[in-house]
Predict the 3D structure of the following.
Amino acid sequence: MDTDALTAGLLQELRAVKPYPAVTLTMPTHRRAPDNAQDAVRLRNLVSRAGHRLDADPEVTREVRAAVKQQLDRAVDAIDPRRALDALVILATPDEFQIWQLPRTAPERVVLSDTYLTRNLVAAKAQAQPFWTLTVAADHAVLFSGTSEAAHEAAIGGFPLTAPREAPNPQREERIGDTPSTFTGEETRQFLRTVDEKMRVVLAADPRPLYLVGLAPALALLDEVGEVAKEAVGRVTKGAPADTTPSDLLTELRPALEARRKQFAAEIDGKLDEARGRHAFAGGLDEVWAAVREGRADLVAVEEHYQQTVRVDEEHLMPVSGDEADPADANVREDIVDELVEAALDSGAEVVFVADDSLKGHGRIAASLRF
């Protein structure tokens, strides 16, 4: 699955307590040859490590061990290397497996617990900054789920929608001079009211920035009859055929996405400047980590490719190099930034990813504090 599939409801399911062991495997992957040639070997080695862990665990019965290993083998067989991104996460219990391809790297790890490890999924989704795009015409509306890298049609919430076609009425045409048409004005208004209602339900369940694509009259009417158009962060005034492809859609959206990115970056800079002015600012990994743990962070900004291995030392984070990092040391956290992102979101903070080097003067990560 891709990160935009990680809804609040699914995340809650993944975090639910399960009969031990719930197995999580994570590893970095490569998008292109020749680097991706090593991924299959690393995955086999990782699965083998998981098998040894299961064999050595006295809490795991023979039947459960065999079932989990079978699920891991099924997961390996199901992986499509052509869809590889920057990390792979496999989740498995005796009854299921899930495969997640992430656009954010994750360390190589085997975890046996009574819940799945979700920090890398959550951080990857936050970094991907998913959005909704609604293409609108007088007689159809299609919903797309997208990130800066890809988009796909989302068959949720009743979408795609097609307006009911009214059969031509010759007597009515003779009486009022109509020519055959798809809708009268009121029918189009009612259809767009339905589009608005269903889109509001989608946004309530999975809030994301919304982009609208359609001819000016369609977007104007959607504005008039509903509420969601007023929440849109960007618009593309262009015809929206029902068979618009995801790649064509992304091409049309690029200017709007870039304009929103620049506007968003300026908004974040302003919020951090304001926080410094009222002495409610934290900069650097250690300060931001402490603020998040205490529930004081309101906004956390992280450079897109910032990652750091640390050792937790008396409630402080001490950066360590790869040579010094011992995976067997429980105090060493290879993905502390992902852990921080997940904790911040769980505390109600807003987490945003910004361009590399934009927070260079603040240790690559900064926060605006509630108090």
